[in-house]
Amino acid sequence: MLASQSVQWINRDTDDHTVVSDDVFDTADHRGTDQLLPGTDSNGGQPGQFVLRFDRPGTFVYYCRFHAHLDAFNQPVAPGPRGGIQDANGNFGTPMMGVITVLGGQDDN
Q: Could you tell me the CATH number of the domain that includes residue 95?
């Protein structure tokens, strides 16, 4: 994407999710991002939404704090003793993370 554009996250899942910046790798100037996107079960049947505008070229690495890291069995492990929603087998579902690369505008050769 180009600087000055926005990204919109839409959570159509029934469970809550988050967009959390991985500040170690963030060079796109959005350190400290920690946004809850409510699931439809906790949001009156409506999907949670979040928009973030990127004005600076760089990289934005993000993850869901409820579904962040894999254990030795490749199952997501939520941080903290109360984080995440487990199934009957103690698993947390699919890990959710991504990387956004923000490029300079056409005048920024």
A: 2.60.40
Specify if 52 maps to a domain. yes
Give yes or no for a contact between 91 and 43, defined as CB atoms under 8 angstroms apart: no
Range(s) of the domain holding residue 63 = 5-102
Report helix, strand or coil for 94. Answer: coil
- Residue-level pLDDT, tens digit, the chain, 109 residues: 999 999 999 999 998 999 999 888 899 999 999 999 999 999 999 999 999 999 999 999 998 887 766 667 666 665 555 555 566 776 655 667 889 999 997 655 4
For residues 19 and 4, give the distance between their C-alpha atoms in angstroms, rounded to a whole number: 19
Return the half-sphere exposure (C-beta side, CA atoms, 13 A cut-off) of residue 77: 9
Phi, psi of 40 (to 5 degrees): -65, -30
Give the total number of structural domains in the chain: 1
Residue 109 lies in a domain: no
